[in-house]
Queue: 2 jobs
Job 1
Amino acid sequence: MLPTADVDNRALLRQIACLRTIDVSLLERLRHEALTVPDEQLWVEEYSQYQSGGWSTLSLLNGSGSSTDVRIGDCIPVATTLLERMPVTRKLLTSLGLRYMWVRLARLGPNSFLWEHRDYDELSDSARQRLHIPLMTNSSAMLVTGGVRVWLRPGRIWRLTPTHVHGACNLLGPDRYHLLLDCYTDDRLAALTANEWLDDADLVRLPPATETELQVHFRKALSLARLGYRQSAEKYLLRLFYQRSLPEGLIYDLIVSLYDALGDAGAAREWSASKTTLLGLAGSRGTA
């Protein structure tokens, strides 16, 4: 019988893993293009229901060729006008030889969050994975999946299986820039993922929340809401996802209970519907 840590690591590897390293000089050139080529006013904040604000994207490969068309879907992708101005990035994408569905440049600002969610539910049954290439990041920018905070170290290509519940945060800044590659599963992708790994130094296992802790957090959120700070109360609970290992969807249930306690049946219904959307039973998903 495998030790618990080994079982946990194998389960985590199904959700997030490193695939290969990227040469430092190449990373610098990719970073330079990401920071200098996109026009500042073109960044699009899409998927507002999934985020706190501060997460924006531009498309490099999509079905329309427009960099501001960022709501992902199945398509035969073409280079956008933005990618045509980024030769180093274009060469990397070609060299990987993957069957892309969509490719984006994503920016996550300081004190920004992508809430607990899963992706791809509204798309076809085709198997796909999302690859992350971190270009600029910091130690407070984390991805959370499987009850673990993961620092996506730059200089590597990472695989995320976004059909597992996950979220992302950038607590302190500066901006986090990633290339996001949504790829269909094929032999080339299988070869790229054949020797995937994780480093313990990049992982922080979140402690499970006790019932007492949850009650304390709920009472504080309720106090904020009763003082009129409803959005602050919601965010206070939503941020628990980055601090504690919790059962899937429990945070949304707490927010529904919050509005039940306030006697606001409409808001309770809205958050119940949001839980259904964010966790993969309805709606569109294409976030981090």
Job 2
Amino acid sequence: MRVPRRAAVTVRAFVAFSAILLAAVFAPAAQAAPAGAGVGHGECATPSVDRLQQWLVSGEGTTVPPTGSLLVPDADGTGYAAKVVFQKDEWHVAVVWLGNRFDAQTDLTGSAGFWLTYRATDDFYVQLRPASHWSGGDKWLTPIPSTGGKLVRKFFPFDPAAWTSLPELGAPPYSFASALTEARGLVFVGKTPNTLEFQGLRIDGYQPPCL
């Protein structure tokens, strides 16, 4: 028996719709994001501050802790903060790896700068260290003022006019602009006793990869 043309079209449409519906029902579920992948500036699966997992002291200067990670649970127990004490009148060093690995680097030429949420009992500095000139004190740096122990949030621009060097540490043998193209870490240095706590370090235009 011949099926009227209009009825045949209707049957074919119904069959096609049914196939789509069955495919949707029995299709495998989408895979969840891997642990620690993060969304936006959500924290990593392991301790981190603004997705930065490697806050370290290497034993340069007398510090508490003397070596290892600075990350500890924050006051309300919902996240982490990086804490370190510089103890003497000598140079101290605390490091943040921007890519969460020592051999990682990132191009920050499009970044306006970074927001730092911190407290400090004395003035200190932050150095921008490039991958090709990582070691040594002869780096571009910008001063970070004391907060008198109060928690503040302050913006530090990647404006070359805001960055300088210290004669005591030596002049950098490279330009500040070139350092931005291969930034490996921000390194906090200070020559006086200082109690430091970092609760945020957010870089404009850059999201660190969780490891």
